[in-house]
Amino acid sequence: MQAKGVILNKTLSSNPGYWLLCPGAAKNAVNTAKHVFVDQWATQSDYALGEAIAASGAEAKDSRYGEKIDADEIVLLPSAGQAELAAQATALIEKECAPLTPKPPLFFEDAALRALAPEFERVARILMERVFSLTPILIRHHDDADGITSGLLLKNAILDFASAGAGRAGRASVPLPKTFLRSEWTDYAIYDSFRLLEDRNWALGFQKKPLLLLLDHGGNEDSHDAVRDAASFFDIVIVDHHPPDSRLREHSLAFVNSIAAGGTSSHTTGLLCFEIARRMQAAPREELLWVSLEGDHSDFRRGVWPQVLALEYLSQTRHSLDDCEKLFADAQTLDIYYKKARTAIEDMMGNARKNTKTFRINSSGGKSEAVLQVTRMSFLKKNEFPSKSLAINEIHNALEYADANLAVVSIGFIRDSLSFRASKPAGAVGFKANGIIERLKEQFGSAVRSGGGHELAASIRFDEDVGEKILEAAVEESKRALSGKSG
Q: Fewer beta carbons within 10 Å, N or C terminal of the chain?
């Protein structure tokens, strides 16, 4: 067997195996594969990524690599051959990685989505080009329903493209090694140095610079330094709906943010990823979109989706994206995990009622009443369900859902962190969580480690020794905001 191609990637070795893209393969009667793995059984070489080689040897099949040559001869092509194959490879990637046609209409007709439509196309092409060129991809997603569904949407779109799914008839599949696609969760809206260290260690296991997808986190000011440093090890794409930091565009291939495009937090990351996936895959799973919207209380949501709570139970008990996806295929599995989650929530709410203090505040010049409830959540157990974030959601929702017109703010406090949740009426009278967090940062300086989120749902982390003082200041700030005296 003979193959002539451009080196896309290679194994981490002094005598590496090569993944080749063979742009002329379709014209070659001996070998019609576009991707070929060259294993150096009887040769010794270490050519660079992007160089073009000719290899010959015995044909073999390998479940990890697809078409394979056990090479007994490898030759570096002369400069003219290098240039010709490089041009052919570039043209082939351009052709094979085009977004699906005809272009799908936006799922929701909306100004922010219209503004982002070119970015959906661009990110889809980036993902397909990385798959086709056998680039390792790390999906780092938030561990709530929106983050999980975002990860599932793009993971499935990547795998569908690699397998030449519907809409790509006639194209050979891409032999993407399983180790080249990885997903990991994060429990915070901020990409931090701890996650960076984990991700860097993974990236160093490859010869080729991987792609890092940051989904439903990583797009805000407190993520800037870690994202900047991650750019030394990764190419980065950020898809997020938290208040953005425009500086992150400097460190990323693409920065897709609904708020930056004039939208709101209702334009969930799952919605953005659904639009990206539709340009790669003929029929992304629509349920994932609806669960994303329900999970983040989007104005676009419809219906009740028990998958939200079951997904968060699975994710927060450290199950994989594959485990989470089974909920959409197996009603019995969904029912089991939903009931487990519901039982844990009910137990948590019993403890919360014993540890919550409620303040009633005159709002709008005394014309209406607002409520501030503060829950000390030390009863929660680390790394167990529910998380701090989900716990404060449930505590807040119990009061907000009882009266949709009530201006209510909920604060959840535990040693070194504090979370805010607020109803829309609270926002209407002037409550802005990010504004309060910024003032706390100014007041407590370096004792505040990070903080941010949405205006009606945000959190802040700080040194434990100033926790009580920060809680006291946050309560006073929230009271002033609800009374209409600050924003």
A: C
